[in-house]
Design a protein that fits this description.
Number of helices: 6
CATH superfamily of one domain: MM3350-like
Structural class: alpha+beta
Order of helices and strands: HEEHEEEHEEEHHH
Shape: elongated
Distance between the termini: 74 Å
Largest sheet: 8 strands, mixed
Oligomer: single chain
Strand content: 15-25%
Number of strands: 8
Amino acid sequence: MGDDERRRRQERARARAGRLGIRPVGEAAPGPASPGPPTLRYFPQPAPPPVTGPLHVVGAPPPGPTAPEVGSPPQVARPVAAPPTRHQLLVTLIDSDPLVWRRLAVPGTITLAKLHRVLQTALGWTGSHLHQFVVGDTVYGAPDLLIDDPPSASTRRARLGQVAPGIDATLRYAYDFGDGWDHLFVVERLRWHDPDAQGTVCLAGGGACPPEDCGGIGGYADLLATLRRGRGQDYRELLAWLGGPFDPTAFDLAATNRALTRRR
């Protein structure tokens, strides 16, 4: 075989490999290297305790086929892997101090409308204000409620497994547009073949839910400062408004799960 013919065959093989996304050994990838994932800094210290064990996909199906080598015979298509049946979520109330957080296990098929009700129950909100989810540039809300500023998509149709399909996926949840309570969801784990995939469970948590209509994060900080003073007319009026003593660190895991069970 002459040098010209060998060179033409190499060029044809390289062109086919490029179409398949295969880079020859030793050839650098085009463009600058992509940066690593950003560090999540959404809540003050101390942060919630980490999940026990490695953060990995639990019970995941085998990975799909890799790109075929040049000249290999056609591959038989494999069945599409089933979506995960259960998501483990860490939700935090952004900028809360003391930190308000919950760790939840929910079905991957849950709609954002139902996830809203789960969060209301798990945190202790009353559901008396408007809300919306934000994933990237998409706003999910209730179109019949957000008439003046309609959302991009409805929470009744969007499912958690669709909008947050992988580990470390995030979504924001805004509640009470006046007080501006902003929450962050982070997907910590995914599970397949979970026997209790339809159940919703609170696994851990900390911090009491702030009182409704107290003025957002800033108003909540003022409320706690007044309670710490423990005297004066403002203190007595605040206690009457609260209906009794208030402990910002209180959290009852058993009571939270009983409330979630009743919500089903």
